[in-house]
Amino acid sequence: MALAAAGAALVPNVASTVIVSKGLTVGYNLHRERKRLTALKNIDLSVRRGEFVVLVGPSGCGKTTFINAIAGLVEPWEGTIEVNGRPVSGPGPDRAMVFQDYALMPWRTVESNVRMPFELQKLGLSQEEMDERVRRYIELVDLKGFEKSYPYELSGGMKQRVGIARALVGEPDILLADEPFAAIDAMTREAMQGELERFVAKAGQTVVFITHSIDEAVTLADRVVVISYRPGRVKEIVPVNLPRPRFDYDVKTLPEYGVLRDHIWRLVKDEAFQAARGEKR
After folding, report:
1. How many CA atoms within 13 Å lie on the side-chain side of 267?
2. Residues 6 or more apart from 4 whose CB is under 8 A from it?
3. Are 141 and 195 within 8 A, CB to CB?
4. Which of 30, 98, 140, 149 could lock 180 by a disulfide, CB 3.0 to 4.6 Å apart?
5. What φ, ψ does residue 81 adopt, rounded to 5°?
């Protein structure tokens, strides 16, 4: 499989880009140690509208920092991050996050948890419009009939469906997902990957997704961005030209799938070993 040639068709053009990172460098001040930690260094990346981009790299390489920069939760030290042609200056209703640990309010029902974005943001919707959206997105994630259930009454996969519905109900342009399936069992995780592909295909969001799983990355992504060990840099961007919907085609049986998986593993392997040893660049 000619990976480089395949990538030519997937390079974003200026007219279709929704996220643009140029020379992005982000870090944190470690007050106790009285030093600064650089998490990301010189990140150049453009994401097309409607694209599903997956970030893969070792723990501590800055993957979460990157989507936090898109979300407006951290500020660049150097470089820029733009969404829809405007510099990111803080959180906004055009971006929503799906978290690893569900982040549901245990005292609120499924319906009430999904409704939360309307309480935190003024979207200019009538009560009828908000009610209709809550109903529609609960149905989209196959939780119809569980509207009055509380989180403790739900399985792990169902809790994550609530989190996805809550992220989608505001109909953001961009969905940011930080290892959203890491806390659920392997079988449910594979099912949820297929469900997420279905949700996004219907809702039409641009997705930036973080995972440590190469299989998950290849299964979901239009492009896989491999991030090096800290400070994180873009090591390589790998296009994934596999048919969709991926689960209908059972893409893991395709020869191209194995080629992509092996290629990404070779890119990640040395970075993972370096992270495990705690080496510095």
Report:
1. 22
2. none
3. yes
4. 98
5. -135, 125
